[in-house]
Amino acid sequence: MTRNEDRQDAPCPLCELRMAETQRVVSRHATSNGTVVYARCDCGRLSVWLVRASAETIL
């Protein structure tokens, strides 16, 4: 898994469109390490990444 900021500007490996423009979040799940995000590109590719919880996050 990569950092969310790095993934946003990367092209989709299948259709080569910018992922920030083409992805729709399908699901989010809180975990002890942060939030797991599932998103689907317009071409159908499913991506999964972890958004780490910040030490400054107030629960």
Descriptive overview:
The protein is of the alpha+beta class and 59 residues long. The protein contains two helices and three strands, in the order ααβββ. A three-stranded antiparallel sheet has the order 1-2-3, with no helix packed on it. This is Ogr/Delta-like zinc finger protein.
Keywords:
single chain; 59 residues; alpha+beta; 2 helices; disordered N terminus
- The H/E string reads HHEEE
Please mark out the parts with pLDDT under 50 across 5 or more consecutive residues, or reply none: 1-6
Measured as a percent range, the helix fraction is 10-25%
Portion of residues in beta strands equals 35-45%
> How far is it from the N-terminal to the C-terminal residue, by CA?
24 Å
Number of E strands: 3
By DSSP (H or I, 4+ residues per run), the number of helices equals: 2
**Tally of discrete structural domains:** 1
Which value, in Å, is the CA radius of gyration?
12 Å
Estimate the mean pLDDT confidence: 77
Main beta sheet:
3 strands, antiparallel
Shape: elongated
Short description:
The chain is of the alpha+beta class.
What is the topology?
Blueprint: H1 4-8, H2 19-22, E1 24-31, E2 34-40, E3 46-52
Antiparallel strand pairs: 1-2, 2-3
Organism: Glycomyces artemisiae
Protein name: Ogr/Delta-like zinc finger protein
